[in-house]
Amino acid sequence: QVHMLSQLIEELSKEKENSNPYDALFITGDIYDRAVPSPEAVCVFDNFLTEVRQKFPELHIFIISGNHDSPARISYAAQILKKQNIHITTTAEQITQPVLINQVAVYSIPFLFPGFLGKDFSNQQEMAQEVVNRILEHHQKNYPDYALVANAHLFTSQGNPSESERIFIG
């Protein structure tokens, strides 16, 4: 984890030095490898976010919860972090609230646990389609002149899950 996160910082640094800085960093879920991460893993991620914020204060960081994450734990301090351009999305209420950057509307779609959108939707395909419908409707109504970017943590059709995946029937 430390090695991978340091590679991200190296890439961000290289492009900043080349006068071509990134506008955003997308962390698309599975922040940790389990819902209750080890204290060491939490510390590593905290140090990473702190270093990125210090070195790249204008960078927007988008974080969504994955199927291994606890949405409640990932969203800790989300409101105060938003003021630091660290955008954390873990709930259904947030999916139609884009962050606007340079004529781009960024929508974030965390992992869709059963019941995420209520009891009317129980499987991944139905929930994903409903989320896309809601985002498109909101976007076309409110931001028709903005490009749309979706940051999502989803299972894909014909995907091959690993032994560590938390799979939900439906």
What would you say about this model in short?
Helix content is 36%, strand content 16%. The chain has 170 residues and is of the alpha/beta class.
Which short descriptors sum up this protein?
single chain; about 170 residues; alpha/beta; three-stranded parallel beta sheet; three-stranded mixed beta sheet; 5 helices; 6 strands; about 35% helix; about 15% strand; globular
Topology:
Blueprint: H1 2-17, E1 24-27, H2 39-55, E2 60-64, H3 71-74, H4 78-82, E3 86-89, E4 99-101, E5 104-109, H5 124-142, E6 147-152
Parallel strand pairs: 1-2, 2-3, 5-6
Antiparallel strand pairs: 4-5
What does this structure look like?
The structure is a single chain. The protein is an alpha/beta fold. 36% of the residues lie in helices and 16% in strands. It has five helices and six strands; from the N terminus they run αβαβααβββαβ. It has helices at 2-17, 39-55, 71-74, 78-82, 124-142, and strands at 24-27, 60-64, 86-89, 99-101, 104-109, 147-152. α1 packs parallel to α2. It is globular, with a radius of gyration of 17 Å.
- Uncertain segments are none
Order of helices and strands: HEHEHHEEEHE
Considering DSSP H and I runs of 4 or more, what fraction of the residues is helical?
25-40%
Which strand order do you get reading across the main beta sheet?
A: 1-2-3
Mean pLDDT: 89
DSSP helical segment count: 5
